[in-house]
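Worked example

This section walks through a single chain of length 544. The input is the sequence exactly as stored; nothing has been trimmed or padded.
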Amino acid sequence: MKKRCLTLCLTILAVIFCTFGFTACKDENEKYYGVYKDQSTTLEIKKDCVEINGEKRTYTIDGNTLSIEGYTGDMHFYEHGKVLSFDVIVEFDSGRITERNKNFSTTLWEYSNGGISLAYTFNLDGTVSYFNADRPVENASGTYRIKDGVIKISTVNLIGKQNTMYLYVSEEGELHFTGVYVKDLDTYFDNGSGNTSSSGNNSTNDNSSSDNNSGSNENENNPPETPPLTFYDVTFWYYAGKMPETVTVMENTVLKLPEFEEKGYTFDGWRINEQLKQAGDTVTITENTDIYAQWTENRYTITYNLNGGQMPHDGVMYEYAIYNLPYHLPIPQGTDTQSFVKWTTAEAGKNEIKTITELGNYTLYAHYEDSAKCLTYKYSEELQGYEVIDYTGNAKEVKIPSTYKGIAVKSIGTSAFSGCHSLTSVEIPDSVTSIGGYAFSACSSLTSVEIPDSVTRIEGYTFNGCHSLTSVEIPDSVTRIGDYAFYACSSLTSVEIPDSVTSISDSAFSGCHSLTSVEIPGSVRVIYPAAFNNCLALKTIIID
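Given that input, the structure is written out below as C-alpha cells.
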C-alpha cells in the first residue's frame, strides 16, 4: 500500500516538474522565428542567429525590438509578433505627425557637402516629389497614400522608371523607412484619400493636441510653424538632339553639375550665366536657372582610294559627323569599260562595306570589273535564246556579247538599262532581234547607240529621256517605231528613217527640241498624232 502511494506521488511530481520545467525553459523568442522576405532580402530568425541573405549575424531581442549585429536601426515586431520593417528614424522639418493616417506636408532631406543632396517633399493633396542633387535624371514625382500608419510612395522619374517605397509612422509620430515585409503591404491602402483612421491612436493624439493649449505643453502639441519653402526650376538644355529636362529644387540648394557624355560630341561643360563650369562643379540655386550644355561636334574622315575611278563629287576625302549616320557610300565612276563593284576596308578586297554606321576614320578601296560581267540574263523559250534583263554596272561603255554560255543573246529586255546615267555608248550585237520598251529610258549620258540590222521593232519609250543622244541610225530591218520611242531626246538633231518603216507611233519624237529636219520615206503609211509634237527647232519635213 505504501509502495503504491509512493509511486503515485512520484508520478504526480514528475508531471508537475515536467510541466513547469518546460514552461520555465521555453524559448521566449520562439514566436519570432521564421523567414521574412522583400524583393531583395531574405531574413531568417533562428534560435542562435539571424541569417540575412545567408549571412549569419548575432542578435538580441528586447521586448518587441530585434537588434542585429552590424546593422543601423532595429527590427520592430508588432501585429502578433511578426516583423514588418527594418527602420531608420529620419528627421523632418515640420515636427511630429500627430495623425498617423492623415496626409501631411513635410520635407525629408539628407545633407551632404553643405547642401541638400536628397529630399522627399510631401504635399497635403497626396502628391510627392523626389530630388537627387547628384543625379538629376533620377528626380521623380508621384503620389503617396497613408493608412494604418504605413505610407506608400509611388513615383516615376524623368526617364520613366517607376519606383515604390514604404515608410511608417510610429506610435510617437516618428517617421521610419521600411525595408523588410512579411505580407503584401498594398492591402493597407485603398484608392481614397488615405485619411480614414483605423487605430485608436489617432483620437488619442487629437485629444492631446486639443486639450493641452497652455503652459509648457503648448509648444509640444502646437509646434511653431516653419516658414514656407521656396522652390526654383532648374532646366538643363542639351544640344545634340536631346530634349531639355527641368527639375525643381529648394532655394539655396547646392547642385552638383552632373557628368554627361554624348556619342559623337566632346562635352566642354555647362554654361550658366555666361560662365562655363565643368561637371562636378557646384552651383547654389537662388532663382530659376537655365543650364546649357556646351558641345564640340566631332568630325571624322573617309579617305577614298579610287584605283583609277572617279568620284561623283570632287576630292578623295570626305568629312562627316554623327548626324550623317547612317552614311551610304557613293558609287564612283569606273573606267570606260569597267564598272564599280564594291568598297572594302582592305586593299586586297576583303571586308566589303556599303554603309557607315559606326563613327570613326576610314580608308576605303574601290574595286571594279569588266562591264559585261554586270549584265543579267534570262533564257527565253519563245526566242530560243537569252535576254538581257538587267545591268548593274556603271561603266561608260558597254558591249553586249552575242552569246552567253554558248547560246545566242536574242533580246534586250524591258527596262534592262533604264536609268544608267553613266552610260555613254552601247554596242548591240547582230544576234539581237528585239529591244524592249524602256530599255534605255533615262540614260541621260547616252550619246550614241548602234542598232543592228537584225532588230525589227523599236518598242515604246525605248530611248525616252536620253537627253544627250545626238544621232541615231535606224536600220532597214525596223518596220515600226513605238509610242514615245525617242520622247524628250532633246539633243537629237537628225534622224534617218529607213524605207522599211511603215508607221511612226504617237509622240515617237515628241519633245526633240534640237531636231531641225526629218525625211519620211514613202513606205510610211501611218503617222500617229503628236509624233513630232513640241519639236521647237523643226523647220523641214520631207515626205517622199
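What to look for: Residues 1-24, 181-186, 191-227 have pLDDT under 50 and may be disordered.
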